[in-house]
Every structure is written in C-alpha cells, then in structure tokens.
C-alpha cells in the first residue's frame, strides 16, 4: 500500500465518521498476523480498535527504514577531507559490543554482526520495549 492509498483510506474513514456512516472495511488478501505467532486475531481491526483513526491491518504493509549503527565518531571537516582509500575511522564502540538497530529514528533492538556466505547480517539479541510515557504531575 503506497502513501497515496493510505491517505485516501484515512480520508474515507474520517468522512464516514463525520457523517455517522459505518467505517468501510479494508479488503486484504494477506495472512492473519496470528499465523505468525503474534497471539491475537486482527482480522476485524475496526472492532478491536474502534477509537483509533486507522485500522491496525493497514499498518502491516508499511515499509520503514531500518538502520544498523556500528558506532559513532566526531571528525572535523579537515580530517574528513584527508580520508582516502584504506583509511580507518575509529568508532566509540569496542569490538564485540552489540550494535544498534534503528527502525525509523527509534532504537528498536541490539544485535551482533554475522557473516552469511559473502554478506554481512545482524542477529537480533535484544528487542527494546516501548519507551515509558511521561506521567502528568
């Protein structure tokens, strides 16, 4: 589902709510998330999430950028311009420390680098729970 289709669907749901009509169902030929061990049946997302703007089933097709961070460093422009082929940049992490996995701009997990044939991969070793919401005083 592309962003234009999502916007159109959200607009139709909002229009239906505003006019008091039933919210249109999203037809999907995708497998049920419960088939993947998620432990819940989301086949009727409108009933399960009646107060939300968008049914959960719509979000299952979204693509998000995944970034893997091996480490960080700070360099001046002059140092960067002096880099050449074979240059080594020292990062703030020690060898063997877990690497960070970001989904969007949120730290999602930690992992370790693995080699799969001729490619690198990441084995997830820890997934972070959602950050606690600040409580009002």
Automatic annotation (TrEMBL):
PANTHER family: FLAGELLAR MOTOR SWITCH PROTEIN FLIN, PTHR43484. One of its GO terms (biological process) is chemotaxis. It is a peripheral membrane protein. Belongs to the FliN/MopA/SpaO family. It is found in: Cell membrane. Keywords: Cell membrane, Chemotaxis, Flagellar rotation, Membrane. Coiled coil: none annotated. SUPFAM superfamilies: Surface presentation of antigens (SPOA). This is Flagellar motor switch protein FliN. InterPro entries: FliN (IPR012826), FliN-like_C (IPR001543), FliN/MopA/SpaO (IPR051469), FliN_T3SS_HrcQb (IPR001172), SpoA-like_sf (IPR036429). The lineage of its organism: Bacteria, Pseudomonadati, Gemmatimonadota, Gemmatimonadia, Gemmatimonadales. Residues 59-127 form the Flagellar motor switch protein FliN-like C-terminal domain. The keyword Cell membrane applies. GO terms for cellular component: bacterial-type flagellum basal body; plasma membrane. One of its GO terms (molecular function) is cytoskeletal motor activity. The keyword 4Fe-4S does not apply.
């Amino acid at each position: 589902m592309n962003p234009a289709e999502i916007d159109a669907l959200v607009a139709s749901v909002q229009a239906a709510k505003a006019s008091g009509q039933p919210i249109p169902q999203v037809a999907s030929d995708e497998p049920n998330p419960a088939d993947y061990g998620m432990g819940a049946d989301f086949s009727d997302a409108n009933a399960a999430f009646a107060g939300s703007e968008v049914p959960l089933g719509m979000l299952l097709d979204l693509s998000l950028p995944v970034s893997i961070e091996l480490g960080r460093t700070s360099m001046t422009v002059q140092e960067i311009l002096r880099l050449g082929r074979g240059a080594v940049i020292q990062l703030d992490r020690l060898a063997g420390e877990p690497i960070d996995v970001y989904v969007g701009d949120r730290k999602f997990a930690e992992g370790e680098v693995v080699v799969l044939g001729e490619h690198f991969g990441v084995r997830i070793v820890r997934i972070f729970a959602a950050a606690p919401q600040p409580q009002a005083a």
